[in-house]
Write a structure and sequence with these properties.
It is a single chain. This protein is mostly helical and about 100 residues long. It has two domains: about 1-35; about 40-103. It contains five helices and no strands. The chain has helices at about 5-15, 20-35, 40-65, 70-80, 85-100. The longest helix has 25 residues, at about 40-65. The chain is elongated, with a radius of gyration of 20 Å.
Length: about 100
Amino acid sequence: MTDETWFRIVQEVVETDFTPHDWCRMTVLDRLDREYGFSKKERLLFHQIVRIQFFVALGFQMLADDTLTTAEWKKLRTCAKEKGDYLAKQTLADFRSRMESNE
């Protein structure tokens, strides 16, 4: 860890009751519990993959039903942009549910 990183951590905990070591431990455990340890880049990739899955699933279903139009596709794109966080949270919740049922 660089001195600059350590200084940033110390600044983060200055107004708390945590030591830098305790804060780091708590932060890592919280991140692992809530986000499965995704880095910022991994989370971005995960969001993109979730959106692609959304497009593929709905797009092919609409093609099969012969209901896919340019206007409907634009609606799907808008929905995926606006609801990206929701889609990612639902995907993680579904994953957690499957993992818990397999235990």
